[in-house]
Amino acid sequence: MLIKLLFLIFLAAAGLIDSIYLTWEHFNKVIPPCTINPLIPAFFIDCGKVLTSPYSIIFGVPLALIGAFHYGLLSLLIVLALKTQTKLFRYWIILQSAFGALFSFYLMYIQLTIIKSICIYCTLSALISFILFILTYYFLKKERFELHTAAYAFVYQNFIKRVFFLLDAEFIHSVMVKRGKFLATTPLIRLVGSKLIYKDKSLRQKVSGINFENPIGLAAGFDYNADLTQALYYLDFGFQSVGTITNYPYEGNPYPRLGRLPKSKSLMVNKGFRNKGAKTIAKHLKNLNFKIPVGISVGMSNSENLTIVPDAIKDIIAALKTFEKSGVKNSYYELNVSCPNLIHAKKISFYLPKNLRLLLSAIDRLRLKKPVFVKMPIDKTNAQVSAMLGEIVKHKSVKGAIFGNLQKDRKNPAIVPAEVKKFKVGNFSGKPCEERSNELIRLAYKKYGDKLIIIGCGGVFSGKDAYKKIKLGASLVQLITGMIFQGPQLISQINLELIDLLKKDGFKNITQAIGYENR
User: Fold this and answer.
1) Are 345 and 427 in the same domain?
2) Which of 236, 297, 389, 518 could disulfide-link 334, Cβ–Cβ 3.0 to 4.6 Å?
3) CA–CA separation, 471 vs 498, rounded Å?
4) What are residue 392's phi and psi, to 5 degrees?
5) 396 with 375: CB under 8 angstroms?
6) Is the pTM above the cut of 0.85?
7) Cα–Cα distance between 190 and 234 in angstroms, integer?
8) CA 22 to CA 225: how far, in whole Å?
9) 80 and 167: one domain?
């Protein structure tokens, strides 16, 4: 980076010298000599005509002086960027070089179309501006991406979100999923996605045999019918979980199924495994290829007919068999045993080690070639969670645990009482889940970090939130609610922030940071 910035200083200094010379000529009323190439008509190059035209002055200030100020400021910014390593100066360099290139384009247009003559000194300045812009565009790639995402965030949070939050949450969710599914079939998504996808080797890792470009994934519960598997790569997700999908389809619990708690930074969730069923979704997915690892979240059907544990196990196994036989190219499975919004959630509990043992033993007999991660509750005690983990590590098919699912405690201090009173049903995502999620990540990593992959989920609204979970022991991090509140550019912003946080702590790769606070 040092050599790149020094080269930019050299170019900016060249532009400064050129502009100072023209400024001196202007105030001394001297027309600089223009070398005329014999191959070019003489009337086409006329420095005097250009420099004495009305377009050479703006509001009484000669353009040459403005150019000198531009190049001088740009040189100063580059020096400050080198000396202080402050990102603000790098952002300013990008914007300043873009301004210079646009203004130079305008001035060349004036010369060629209105004045119909060119000044070689002005043209040299324009050429320097264009080269500076192009080199800055490539040299400061990461800073450019940070500016793009900041612009997207500003538009979303100040305009789009305000409109969305005036409308029904489930309606907006349905509309956005349909739009995302459609956009994935058009070139437009590639144009937009190119401004958000930033890859860096420090974020790459292999987890349970699966290659992840970055650690940020979409949690189960958003794309419950697997409509967005071709779209989420363009939001810079490193992976995604679809579903939760069940053996039999379910239309969803009675309304309300989704609501917002803005002050609590939370969503009320009461969908109850709404999905089209394993057979329909497997048929939809079987011929698709995925740019990022896709996991299938599987749970028991939300049915009145399932009242005992053996029947629930058979139901879950049937769904897994459907996906295995269909040949879907998913990378992993999630086993969702912790959804609190099911009809018989209290009657059929896999929180009890003996019931969990029966389920996981049945999954072991399937001999799945893809790893299974168990979605864990966050409302259980440390002892109860430890008992579940103690059972999980006994089964070869299960490679990890996800912490965790929704917050059931309506008196959780992170929830604003006035907001929770609006909803008589459902449980809560987002910030109310964060503290307990982090506690359980710490617990799981300390006890079983050498045996289980841990995935963090709950309350991730920034790179710092994700990094906290990683340093406590999470290899991967999932989110939904943060994206709803912050905007779809959040994933890219988190990844960019993680790169800086890793560098600040002296880590070359994310694997070095996993569990660092918990070792």
Assistant:
1) yes
2) 297
3) 11
4) -60, -45
5) no
6) yes
7) 7
8) 65
9) no
